[in-house]
């Protein structure tokens, strides 16, 4: 069971254990702030350099004078919106919140959803950073994720999920039989992306 495995023991995969099987889903997990988004960006740069098309989004912290004010959602083609802000900075309180942050569902959906259209091109990589509690306040986004993580998908997917056990859909992603999960740590974060890019590219070439 996932609960019985500690992050220090996880250097490659906690799902999709059969390495001879073709993979579709390449999942990163790890503690908050460990560098998953930085790795996602580096992976995208490497794939694009090899001619692999990418579509999707990533999230990043917003800070002023080192104080975190919230999070933005940014598409891979540069469109930006607010994902969440400290409630004190909002003129109208958000309907959904996580801790002190109000989640701005409409702004998130406006940026994220158009980037996650499934395509016929098997060499298109969908990037979802991240699949988590804030993002799942959006029912259309959650439904899109559920649709993407099916066996009918032509594309490959790179995504990040929380390290701790959470929503049943996230747990199904963690243990999907066509997924491989990498645990990002401070020790491996500067080198792990090379292994992930290699595996992704090998799976693309196998088509």
Give your account of this protein's structure.
There is one protein chain. The protein has helices spanning 36-49, 105-112, 139-148, 168-174, 192-205, and strands at residues 25-30, 53-64, 67-75, 80-86, 96-98, 101-103, 124-128, 156-162, 179-184. By secondary structure, it is of the alpha/beta class. Strands 5-6-4-3-2-7-8-1-9 form a nine-stranded mixed β-sheet, with helices on both faces. Strand 5 and strand 6 form a beta hairpin. Helix 1 crosses helix 5. The protein is globular and about 50 Å long. It starts with 24 loop residues before the first strand and ends with a helix. The model is unreliable at 1-18 (pLDDT under 50).
Concise synopsis of the structure shown:
It is built from 5 helices and 9 strands, in the order E-H-E-E-E-E-E-H-E-H-E-H-E-H. The chain is α/β, with parallel strands linked by helices and 207 residues long.
């Amino acid at each position: 069971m996932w609960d019985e495995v500690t992050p220090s023991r996880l250097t490659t995969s906690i799902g999709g254990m059969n390495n001879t099987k073709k993979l579709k889903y390449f999942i990163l997990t790890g503690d908050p702030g460990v560098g998953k988004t930085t790795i996602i960006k580096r992976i995208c740069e490497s794939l694009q350099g090899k001619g692999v098309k990418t579509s999707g989004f990533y999230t990043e912290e917003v800070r002023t004078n080192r104080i975190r004010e919230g999070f933005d959602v940014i598409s891979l083609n540069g469109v930006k919106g607010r994902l969440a802000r400290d409630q004190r900075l909002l003129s109208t309180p958000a309907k959904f919140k996580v801790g002190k942050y109000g989640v701005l569902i409409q702004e998130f959906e406006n940026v994220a959803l158009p980037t996650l259209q499934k395509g016929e091109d098997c060499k298109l990589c969908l990037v979802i950073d991240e699949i988590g509690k804030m993002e799942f306040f959006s029912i259309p986004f959650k439904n899109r994720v559920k649709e993407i993580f099916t066996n009918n998908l032509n594309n490959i997917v790179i995504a990040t999920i929380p390290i701790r056990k959470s929503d049943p859909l996230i747990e199904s992603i963690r243990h999907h039989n066509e997924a491989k999960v990498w645990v990002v740590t401070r020790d491996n974060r500067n080198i792990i992306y090379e292994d992930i890019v290699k595996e992704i590219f090998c799976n693309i070439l196998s088509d």
